[in-house]
Structures are given as C-alpha cells and as structure tokens.
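User: Hi! I'm working on a homework problem where we have to compare a predicted structure to a textbook description. Could you give me the structure for the chain below?
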Amino acid sequence: MIKKLCLTAILGAGAIIGCTPIMQSIPLRDMSEQEIKASNAVVMLNQAQLAGKKFSVLGSVEGISCKRNSHGPSATQSDALFQTRFWASKKNANAIANVRCTQNKDAIGKGCLETYTCTADAIRLE
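Assistant: Happy to help. Predicted structure tokens:
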C-alpha cells in the first residue's frame, strides 16, 4: 500500500511540475528595440577567444525556443541562442561562453511539441 501511495504522490507532483515552463521565452515582437539591440550585442565566444582576456562570469543563462502547436513555427537553435543572449543581456553581460544546445522533440511537459534549449555562462569582458 505504501508503494502505491508514494507512486501516486510522485506522479501527481510530476504532473504539476510538468505543466510549468522552466524558463520563460520572450517573443521577439514583445521586446523593445533597446532589448533587441542589447541582445544582438552579446557575442558568443569559445575558450580560445577568451584566452588571455579579463572577464567575470555573471552566472548561468538559458534560452528556449518552443513549438507550441502543430501549426506554429518550429523551434530553432538560432531562436534559443537569441533567447540565451537576451537573458545574458539582462545580467549586463556582453558575451556568452560554454554554450550547449539540445533539441527535444517531445517536450509536452514544458507546454511545447518540441524545444531547443541553450545554456551558457553569461560573462562581462573588461
């Protein structure tokens, strides 16, 4: 009996958590011109490009591109990268590094048919 109750509680909690988006995706049409400019100014750098430069890591950021329904636009890596740069700009970063992107074609728990998710370190070059 205890195993059944625990399983029910876990499944119930999973359903509640699964319906909540992990990271908010801001549509481009809802961004101000200044936010778009700031996002576009954030550059993506690899480790070789960072070598010898002074910078501070401001934290981790995540961007998500979501295909919400079968008639909507597809989730794309470029949209997820733009969202990642957007969130980095909100931390006053001027670059991102250590970028990792993944595609999930079954993201119903996030309210999407498919997603691209990118994570990165938001950094401030001196």
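For your comparison, note the following. Residues 55 and 125 are 4 Å apart (CA to CA). Helices lie at 2-18, 33-41, 47-50, 77-90. Good luck with the assignment!
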